[in-house]
């Protein structure tokens, strides 16, 4: 690698530096190459003696002073004062955002509750009918001892409750299949129409 190639390569590696600083570095290393050539080295030997251009560029860039600007104390105080003064505004906005999130969650839960209201209600009546059936069937023999007609009536109520509990149990089982499908469809709809849109506006990811 000759002098021109070395300096051209070094310039490309130092593109992150300001132009004036970059030209200063290039002039410095060009002078170092010239000094070595005056001492008797060939152009290639002088370039090789400087070392790898990549390592030199790393050293030059790392030696540059940091350009991060630190806030002065008066500026920090001003920012704190602005935050305190603006607290009523951003606190109200934060509360409004939380209210919207809670409302959305409640609406989603309401959707699931509405879907499962019928099978849950039928299952509840089924359990109540089953309890009534057991109590009536167990108690009817004791009632027949004192009053045959009352005990017979109680037995009939127990049998009706048993039939009702069986019918409601079958209805709950078959209805639950359809309501499971409805729940999956509702969840799919939420995923497509709500969650994907939130992702598009970069709300979901944050």
UniProtKB/TrEMBL annotation:
It is a multi-pass membrane protein. It comes from the Bacteria. The chain crosses the membrane at residues 77-109, 115-139, 151-175. Coiled coil: none annotated. It holds the Pfam family HAAS. It is found in: Membrane. Its main location: membrane. Keywords: Membrane, Transmembrane, Transmembrane helix. Residues 94-198 form the ABC transmembrane type-1 domain. One of its GO terms (cellular component) is membrane. GO terms for molecular function: ABC-type transporter activity; ATP binding. This is Membrane protein.
């Amino acid at each position: 690698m000759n002098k021109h190639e070395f300096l051209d390569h070094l310039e490309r590696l130092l593109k992150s530096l300001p132009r004036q600083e970059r030209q200063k570095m290039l002039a410095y290393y060009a002078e170092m190459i010239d000094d070595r050539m005056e001492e008797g080295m060939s152009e290639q030997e002088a370039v090789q003696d400087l070392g790898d251009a990549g390592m030199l560029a790393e050293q030059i860039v790392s030696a540059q002073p940091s350009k991060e600007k630190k806030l002065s104390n008066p500026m920090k105080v001003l920012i704190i004062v602005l935050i305190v003064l603006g607290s009523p505004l951003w606190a109200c906005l934060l509360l409004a955002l939380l209210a919207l999130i809670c409302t959305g969650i409640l609406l989603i839960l309401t959707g699931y509750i509405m879907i499962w209201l019928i099978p849950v209600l039928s299952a509840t009546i089924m359990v109540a009918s089953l309890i009534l059936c057991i109590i009536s069937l167990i108690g009817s023999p004791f009632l027949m001892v004192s009053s045959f007609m009352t005990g017979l009536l109680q037995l009939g109520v127990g049998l009706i409750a048993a039939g009702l509990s069986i019918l409601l149990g079958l209805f709950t089982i078959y209805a639950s299949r359809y309501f499971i499908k409805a729940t999956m469809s509702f969840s799919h709809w939420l995923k497509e129409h709500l969650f994907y849109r939130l992702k598009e506006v970069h709300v979901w990811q944050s």
